[in-house]
Design brief:
Residues 217-504 form the Glucose-6-phosphate dehydrogenase C-terminal domain. This is Glucose-6-phosphate 1-dehydrogenase. Helix content is 34%, strand content 19%. The protein has helices spanning 8-14, 44-59, 79-87, 96-104, 116-131, 149-163, 182-193, 211-221, 224-229, 252-256, 259-277, 286-298, 423-426, 435-445, 454-471, 495-501; strands at residues 34-39, 67-73, 106-110, 140-145, 170-175, 201-204, 235-243, 308-314, 337-342, 354-359, 366-373, 388-394, 398-406, 414-422, 483-486. Strands 14-13-12-11-7-10-9-8-15 form a 9-stranded mixed beta sheet, sandwiched between helices. It has a 6-stranded parallel beta sheet with strand order 3-2-1-4-5-6, with helices on both faces. Bound molecules: 2-acetamido-2-deoxy-beta-D-glucopyranose (3 copies).
Length: 522
């Protein structure tokens, strides 16, 4: 076997096989001047995600040459204090020069979210920056709303009234939560739609920016073995798992309004599921991809109460339980863990359970997709493991396929082995962008394929709303009480039985990944 190419240049040259997005439209703002406005610039999301992502693009030279980043929020601070905030989650020791240059394009304006006067001040400031540019430069603007949902509508309207560029293109990026159920989502969408057209709106679900999720299209449709086998004839069940090893840690009051299903399942995991299960799109163009995602989601009926397992963590080993947080009501039944089974009623997937599991305060932090294939015909084999295709989304991207192989030696004995593609070993000098870097880059280029369309949100809520109303006590019958599980456990004690109910077979208990070579039976 030849050694893998370690050289990113060679990999890059080979990449031509997918038509690049630039070829599909000239919506890109990359080669013109651009003003990026971050609304909510003093908040957590901005300092943890938005500014580091903007910096990542800046140091890779992926922002337009003439770019200004303007922060806007209520907090009164001078530029120096603002720079500190913006750089708080950027490795300035690793990039001393670049981060210094980055601060030169940053400025800040403070003002209220619900009054025109603040946005007028912002407009005057943007104008001043744009007036220094050549006269014929278009005045393109990208607005990033890093604000809580309660001010979405005010901010979107205030920006439209006061800061909308008449001499260039405008785009607005917003992020979840998009409502709490179908009705509130529709209200929110229609209030934003009054101001911003669908074409101008980029709705982030950051899972769509994750490298492994973006890879699903290529993996599925670029490999005939997977293309041919990912269907109800060959697949027993699919699991999409999200585990976090920490609890709500002081943010319990905020979390309690949403719960794990709204926080993770209805958006991130469902988006992942739709890319994993959709039919082959006509092309890689954004609307072709999003059409297929909507189609597959429309085949999923609302989740039933009996296909659901809820959990809530309690104190263990000195770690506080969910309800020990003073901001969480004592009688809260908000799930911090959920196991859900979804079914897709189309010819490809009918009858295959898609098991979603998401939980906080579990034994590890991991997000993965696990496709478990059906048993092979018995006869020559008695007890042989199932094939599995596992794609780990985080941490550290890995794809592995569990196969059976003969144990080397005189005996004919099968053992499970894995074909293993670990990104950091295989793609040694490829710098994988973070999800937010990838998405902001797409928004600048005008590529909407990895953003959530309005009709997608609508179908996504239809699948989850009856279940959520039941949990919230708005459905028929009493509200369910989640099963308690200790902080740091694998989940509620019924979680293994829940997967088994939908056909998932655990590998033999004595089977562990052979870390070194398997001892041959000579
Ligand atoms: C797997 O799916 C293909 C259709 O894509 C089908 O022809 C084949 O029989 C299936 N395999 C099994 C074991 O059912
Ligand atoms: C895959 O290979 C990497 C090393 O390249 C190793 O660290 C990892 O444990 C392997 N994973 C599996 C599931 O075999
Ligand atoms: C956590 O539990 C899972 C089973 O749900 C197990 O496979 C995994 O090895 C455990 N992780 C750690 C770090 O113990």
């Amino acid at each position: 076997m030849s050694s893998p190419p370690r050289d990113s240049e060679r990999l890059r040259r080979k990449r031509g096989s997918i038509p690049s997005m630039e070829a599909l439209g000239d919506d890109s703002l990359k080669d013109q001047s651009l003003s990026i406005v971050v609304v909510g610039a003093s908040g957590d999301l901005a300092s943890k995600k938005t500014f580091p992502a903007l910096f990542g693009l800046f140091r890779r030279d992926l922002l337009p040459k003439d770019v200004a980043i303007i922060g806007y929020a209520r907090t009164d601070m001078d530029d120096e204090k603002f720079h500190k905030k913006a750089l708080a989650h950027i490795d300035t020791k690793k990039y001393p020069e670049e981060s210094k240059k980055f601060t030169k394009i940053l400025s800040y304006i403070h003002g209220p979210y619900d009054k025109d006067e603040g946005y007028q001040k912002l407009e005057a400031h943007i104008d001043e920056i744009e007036n220094k540019r050549p006269d014929n430069e278009p005045r393109n603007r990208l607005f990033y709303l890093a604000v809580p949902p309660t001010v979405f509508a005010d901010a979107a309207a205030g920006l439209k009234r006061n800061c909308y560029s008449r001499k260039g293109r405008n785009r607005i990026i917003i992020e979840k939560p998009f409502g709490k159920d179908l009705e509130t989502c529709r209200e929110l969408l229609s209030s934003l739609k009054g101001e911003w057209s669908e074409d101008e709106t980029y709705r982030i679900d950051h899972y769509l920016g994750k490298e492994m999720v973006k890879n699903l299209l290529v993996l599925r449709f670029g490999n005939i073995v997977l293309d041919a086998t990912l269907n109800k004839n060959n697949v027993s069940n699919v699991q999409i798992t999200f585990k976090e090893s920490f609890g709500t840690e002081g943010r319990g009051g905020y979390f309690d309004e949403f719960g794990i299903i709204r926080d993770v399942c209805q958006n991130h995991l469902l988006q992942t599921l739709s890319v994993l299960a959709m039919e082959r799109p006509v092309s890689f163009a954004a609307e072709d991809i999003r059409d297929e995602k909507v189609k597959v989601l429309r085949c999923i009926p609302p989740i039933k109460a009996e296909d659901c397992l809820l959990g809530q963590y309690v104190a263990a080993d000195g770690k506080p339980g969910y309800k020990d947080d003073d901001t969480v009501p004592d009688d809260s039944n908000t799930p911090t863990y959920a196991g859900l089974a979804l079914f897709i009623n189309n010819p490809r997937w009918e009858g295959v359970p898609f098991i979603m599991k998401a939980g906080k305060a579990l034994n590890e932090s991991k997000v993965e997709i696990r496709v478990q294939f059906k048993d092979v015909t018995s006869g020559i084999f008695t007890d042989i493991a199932r094939n599995e295709l596992v794609m780990r989304i985080q941490p550290d991207e890995v794809i592995y396929m569990k196969l059976n192989s003969k144990l080397p030696g005189f005996e004919t004995k099968a053992i499970p082995v894995e074909l293993n593609l670990t990104y950091k070993d295989r793609f040694t000098d490829v710098d994988i962008p973070t999800a937010y870097e990838a998405l902001i880059h797409d928004a600048i280029k005008g590529d909407r394929s990895n953003f959530v369309r309005d009709d997608e949100l609508d179908v996504a809520w239809k699948i989850f709303t009856p279940l959520l109303h039941w949990i919230d006590g708005k459905g028929p019958g009493p509200k369910p009480q989640p099963e308690a599980y200790p902080y740091g456990a694998r989940g509620p004690k019924d979680s293994a039985a829940f997967s088994a109910k939908y056909g998932y077979k655990r590998p033999d208990d004595d089977y562990t990944w052979p870390t070194t070579s398997v001892q041959a039976n000579l």
